[in-house]
Amino acid sequence: MEASARTDVGLVRAVNEDNYLLSDVLFAVADGLGGHEAGEIASKMAVNMLEEYLLSYESDPANRLREVFTGINAAIYRRSTSDESCKGMGTTLTALLIQDGTAYIGHVGDSRIYLVRKDVIYQLTEDHSVVGELVRMGMLTKSEAKVHPQRNLLTRAIGTLATVDMEIVDSKVEPGDRFILCTDGLSGAIEDSKILDVVLSRQAPSAVVDDLITLANQNGGYDNVTVVAVFVGT
Q1: Are 132 and 126 in contact (CB under 8 A)?
Q2: N or C, fewer C-beta in 10 Å, the chain?
Q3: Cα–Cα distances in Å, from 49 out to 8, 30, 216?
Q4: How many Å apart are CA 97 and CA 169, to the nearest integer?
Q5: Would you state the pLDDT for residue 200?
Q6: Is the CATH number 3.60.40.10 carried by domain 2-231?
Q7: 203 neighbors 144 (Cβ within 8 angstroms)
Q8: What is the pLDDT of residues 176-228, one digit of tens each?
Q9: Sheet of 178-182: strands edge to edge?
Q10: Phi/psi at 178 (nearest 5 deg)?
């Protein structure tokens, strides 16, 4: 596998509240929320704890993801309720673990994982947001969701409540698969078809990451943007 990652503050925000994780088999993005620098603290806690604990657990990968996400949620919630400067903080967390030919995904929030396979792009995660629910019910199109006034309102996040309902899925990995993890600074700025175009036009994960972030900023750069590209060998 080859992988690359980058985060960018964008053109409007003063602080970057995104964080990412890039390791041999474990990858993640997190988009913090909360006043002042609390969102940055929450997203950093999430990726640090994910890396520290996930690979040391002995249970199967799906159960490991569930256990670690539960622990991360509890730790961020404790911090947010005990530290006045972190009150109300939380984060999205979207993780990809590739092990023994299988991709295991843990997900809370509206960051995303895409899979590009044989020239087709698939969104592997659901957006846990108000507009995401409306899209699934057929009440909004994806294009309408991008400009909806409630597009940033999450229905689930890590650390905002004492417990969290997470999405845990797995799928077989095929040679040539390309995974894109991103925060909504990317998915909210450009269409899925444009992400596909970039992935198909570049050979190196680093070039894909750079091009996608450039496109997000060219489209306004209204949010922090983080991209992780993971390419499976053929």
Answers
A1: yes
A2: C
A3: 22, 12, 28
A4: 11
A5: 97
A6: yes
A7: no
A8: 999 999 999 999 999 999 999 999 999 999 999 999 999 999 999 999 999 99
A9: 2-8, 225-231, 178-182, 112-117, 120-123
A10: -130, 120
Burial label for 9, CB within 10 Å (0-12, 13-18, 19+), is: middle
What's the pLDDT tens digit per position in 8-58?
A: 999 999 999 999 999 999 999 999 998 667 999 999 999 999 999 887 777
Residue 162 contacts residue 74 (beta carbons within 8 Å): yes
pLDDT computed for residue 128 by the predictor: 87
What is the residue-wise DSSP string for 130-176?
HHHHHHHTTSS-HHHHHH-TTTT-BS--BTSSSS---EEEEEE--TT
When pLDDT is cut at 50, 70 and 90, the band that residue 121 belongs to is very high
The residue among 177, 160, 165 whose CA lies nearest residue 233 is 177
The model's pLDDT over 90-108, given as tens digits with 9 standing for 90+, comes to 999 999 999 999 999 999 9
The whole model's pTM is what?
A: 0.93
| Domain ranges within the chain, ordered by starting residue | 2-231
Contact 95, 26 (CB under 8 A): yes
* Residue 129 backbone phi and psi in degrees, to 5: -145, 165
Report phi then psi at 22, rounded to 5: -135, 110
